[in-house]
Design brief:
With 307 residues, this protein is an alpha/beta fold. It has 2 domains: 2-72, no CATH class; 77-306, Rossmann fold. It is 34% helix and 23% strand. It has helices at residues 2-14, 24-38, 65-72, 77-86, 102-111, 124-136, 199-205, 224-229, 232-236, 247-252, 257-264, 286-289; strands at 46-51, 54-59, 92-96, 116-120, 143-146, 149-150, 155-161, 170-171, 190-197, 213-218, 238-245, 270-273, 281-282, 301-306. The strands form 3 sheets. It has an 8-stranded mixed sheet. Helix 5 (102-111) links the parallel strand 3 (92-96) and strand 4. The radius of gyration is 19 Å and the shape is globular. The model is unreliable at 10-21 (pLDDT under 50).
């Protein structure tokens, strides 16, 4: 493994990685080139990135999160820096859509021995890596992991598994075909059954239903409104919410911006967004802000809301 890490560093240096925002798109071309040089045509299915924030095992067939961590040493740097500025020892935090555990591990180190991280990941491949990464970073005692989706009601649902971006696996809503869009080949994806809970129920199971939550991070590819509907008690006790807002995914889930606003805005007083300058504004202006196009390739925006 040390040999592979050394080779990765040498190839990264040889490819002259981007240093400016203007080269961000080219970064992914470089990452895919790097991956193909290291692993395409082999039977290697797993790699490990050792960063300042921890050790992260990832599946080499997943094009996005693990490779970005291996390449940059961080995932979503601006969001991660914000989390580090907020979460403190003793805090209770929630990671919804934990994937391989970047935020779970980062927050697990921040909350200390007396804090707790509640992490939720329905995708089986990512969940297995989440468990390994929590164990590898010696955070088992403070992390409660759930191999489940969060929705507005408990039950068993279908998950569309993305072949090369495990983080884009999504709950299959009945409205998906009605929206008439299939931009990411969703109709041909493999579907598997997954268990779903509500966040309010999960916190009760964990014995934390009356606890003050410092921060919730939600990245659920369009399921956010359904998640918030089952989390109203928990949101009322939450100081800070970081959430992705993705109009395309939301539409496939049968929801719209007004549904998103109505589910969240009663619990918070201010909002800010990462892609248009990070400035907190009154929550009453948030609905209008949702109509401002995102600068990201897929059109998603990451918002921060606080009391």
């Amino acid at each position: 493994m040390e040999f592979m890490l050394g080779l990765l560093r040498q190839l990264k240096a040889r490819l002259n990685p981007p240093v400016s925002a203007a080269q961000a798109e080219d970064k992914w071309a470089r990452i895919f080139q790097l991956r193909s040089q290291l692993f395409d045509g082999t039977y290697i299915r797993e790699a490990m990135a050792q960063t300042a924030d921890g050790i992260f095992h990832f599946d080499v067939r997943d094009n996005i999160i693990g490779w970005s961590i291996a390449y940059d040493g961080v995932w979503e740097k601006a969001e991660t820096d914000f989390v580090k500025s907020v979460v403190e020892p003793g805090d209770f935090v929630v990671d919804v859509g934990a994937n391989i555990g970047w935020y779970t591990v980062v927050m697990g180190k921040l909350v200390g021995e007396n804090g707790r991280v509640f992490a939720f990941e329905p995708e089986s491949r990512s969940y297995d890596l989440l468990c390994r990464n929590v164990h590898e970073n010696r955070l088992v005692d403070r992390c409660r992991l759930f191999n489940a989706a969060l929705l507005e009601r408990a039950g068993v649902f279908e998950l569309e598994q993305a072949a090369d971006n495990f983080g884009d696996s999504r709950i299959r809503f009945s409205s998906a075909q009605e929206c008439g869009q299939n931009m990411y080949g969703e109709e041909s994806r493999r579907r598997v059954a997954v268990e779903a809970l509500t966040l309010d129920e999960a916190m009760q199971v964990a014995g934390a239903e009356h606890s003050r939550i410092k921060l919730i991070k939600v990245d659920a590819q369009g399921s956010e409104v359904a998640i918030f509907a089952g989390a109203q008690k928990t949101l009322a006790q939450t100081n800070v919410l970081i959430t992705e807002y993705w109009p395309y995914g939301l539409q496939r889930a049968g929801k719209k911006a007004d549904d998103f606003f109505d589910a969240v805005s009663p619990h918070f007083n201010q909002y800010a967004r990462f892609d248009c300058g990070f400035e907190f504004r009154s929550i009453k202006d948030w609905r209008e802000d949702m109509n401002v196009p995102a600068s990201t390739p897929c059109g998603e925006t990451v918002y921060v809301l606080k009391k």
